Amino acid sequence: MDQLAAKEANNDALAPANVLAPIQEMVRACIQCGTCTASCPNEFAMDHTPRKLWRLVLMGLTEQIFQSKTFALCSNCYCCTLRCPRGLPLTEAMSALKQIAARQNLATYRQSTLFYKNFLQSVRRHGRVNEMEFMAFYFAALRNLVIPLRFAPLGMKLMRKGKVSVAVPLNARRPLESIFRNVEALEDMT
Questions:
Q1: What single DSSP character describes residue 23?
Q2: What's the whole-model pTM score?
Q3: Nearest CA among 31, 125, 106, 37 for reference residue 65
Q4: I want to staple 36 with a disulfide (CB 3.0 to 4.6 A). Which of 50, 113, 116, 162 is the partner?
Q5: How far apart are CA 76 and CA 90, in angstroms?
Q6: Same domain, 37 and 91
Q7: Number of domains in the chain
């Protein structure tokens, strides 16, 4: 009984009523025709087809959904949304699943979440991405010494060709700060 209670407590954060309800509403009219899967250019790499993912969402199977990498592989090309015979907002539903995974800080998606957060922090600081700083912060956040070593040959090649600068930017203007603050205020309102 204690194991069952512990499992239910772990699933509370991802309970369908808490998390999946808005997404279920988006795909409730899905007729499981498979057009989304046939339209998806990334379907070959997904562990579940988009069609199966929508079925899992409708069934409220959060554990299976968030163990899958299907929604993480969505490239937001809108092919599924444009071709859906029911006109469902499938791309927005995929994005909503990505946001849930990021908010819940799920281990499976930790690496990509850290990538995007560090990328945006670099853009916020400099008005554009500073590749060297971005990668340094990203690799530090990963806390894995092996990953940077795998990318070292590529980094050296890019530096030799002048594609990546090792100079530390001294510009402290933060030209996009007001835009980032406005977006944060809008996100707080929702």
A1: H
A2: 0.69
A3: 106
A4: 50
A5: 9
A6: yes
A7: 2
Give pLDDT, residue 172: 63
For the chain, which ranges sit under pLDDT 70? 1-17, 168-172, 190
Q: What secondary structure does DSSP assign to 44-110, as a single string?
A: GG-SS-HHHHHHHHHHT-HHHHHH--TGGG-----HHHHH-TT---HHHHHHHHHHHHHHTT-GGGH
Residue 38 lies in domain: 2-104
For tokens 């998390």, name the residue: 19
With 0-12 / 13-18 / 19 or more C-beta atoms within 10 angstroms meaning exposed / middle / buried, residue 84 is buried
Is the domain of 152 the same as that of 135? yes
* Same domain for 50 and 124: no
Domain termination site, one of 73, 104, 135: 104
Q: What local confidence, expressed as pLDDT, does residue 102 receive?
A: 85
Residue reference for tokens 């700060």: 177
- Look at phi and psi of residue 84 and say left if phi exceeds 0, alpha if psi is from -120 to 50, else beta: beta
CA–CA separation, 22 and 11 (whole Å): 18
CB 54 within 8 A of CB 27: yes
Q: What is the pLDDT of residue 190?
A: 64
- Domain boundary at 78, 104, 130, which? 104
Q: What does the angle CA 127 – CA 129 – CA 120 come to, to the nearest 5 degrees?
A: 80
Q: For residue 16, what pLDDT is reported?
A: 46
CA nearest neighbour of 76 among 89, 88, 94: 94
